[in-house]
Amino acid sequence: MKARITVLGGDGIGPEVTAEAVRVLQAVAGTYGHEFDFAEALIGGAAIDASGSPLPPRTIDACRSCEAVLLGAVGGPKWSDPNARVRPEQGLLELRRTLGLFANLRPVKTLESMLDASPLRPEVVSGTDILVVRELTGGIYFGRKSRTAHEAEDVCSYTSEEIERVTRMAGRLAMGRRRRIVSVDKANVLETSRLWRSVAERVIGDEFPDVELEHMLVDAAAMHLLRRPTSFDVLLTENMFGDILTDEASMLVGSLGLLPSASLGEGTAGLYEPIHGSAPDIAGRGIANPYGTILSAAMLLRHSLGLEAEARAVEGAVTKALSDGVRTADIATPEGVSVGSRAAGDAVISRIFKGT
Length: 356
Hints:
Blueprint: E1 2-10, H1 14-32, E2 35-40, H2 45-51, H3 57-64, E3 68-73, H4 88-98, E4 103-109, H5 122-125, E5 129-135, E6 145-147, E7 152-154, H6 160-175, E8 180-185, H7 191-207, E9 212-217, H8 218-227, E10 234-237, H9 239-253, E11 262-264, E12 270-272, H10 291-303, H11 308-323, H12 341-350
Parallel strand pairs: 1-2, 1-3, 3-12, 5-10, 8-9, 8-10
Antiparallel strand pairs: 4-5, 4-11, 6-7, 11-12
Helix pairs in contact: 1-10, 1-12, 6-7, 8-9, 10-11, 11-12
């Protein structure tokens, strides 16, 4: 297979972790006989510094003309003024909108070898396997905004169509898993949540009769994620709730650095990124955890390129590396020795074998 992949390193540790994911993808291409062409472009703070825009036209063109986009992270203290007219995060939000990416998939799966990394008891988190499906283009992040000296407004708005398409994707994914969806809302307070609940019931009831649908208020979901995480299969959420809950869920596996994500639309093109931020405090030191980005590359292989065996090989290699004790500083045990980003990448590459 031939494929073009646009790499957006972004800010902070972004370029460091994407470099390791690219090396892994190159190893996959060599092992399985594929040809991957990588093109780099700017986004976020780095793009603001270079062009004044967090998403330059050249970056948009590169992302539109490729099969998939691999992203590191955006943002940092240099561009953190909340009153600034141009901010790094605007580039990511606009890229999702431009590419028509409306669903963010965030798998949260614990490994037996990593149970000690979670702040929760091993018996609570062992066996956790959750897929969060977060709506990406609606809600309070994209609603009407206004501010005066004494008043501010952020409007949360959703249409039936926006809810239908993300629910439909969650339904399709649930059919390949344990066929259970928990839809998160705040229907006891919010009209958008009441619409969300009714549309989700209709879509799942009409199109996925074999899928069990349960509604759960977001505050209860936040509690039960820590109390009984293994009870969840697919977690369907609106934009802001999903953003918050997936950061919480990262503690089930022990670190933000371990979790990947895929942003998808109606076609096969997608945007793949770890869920962590730019971590400017450790940028340039070569110690960032690349596993979440490498696992995002595995999702890229699966969802955009249709290479399931290759995706499983990468995931298996990460699992084996972690089982063998190859841990970066954020997940190292008190008595253990941590490795840097490149050594973690090397550990994954050395464990990728055709047919695994």
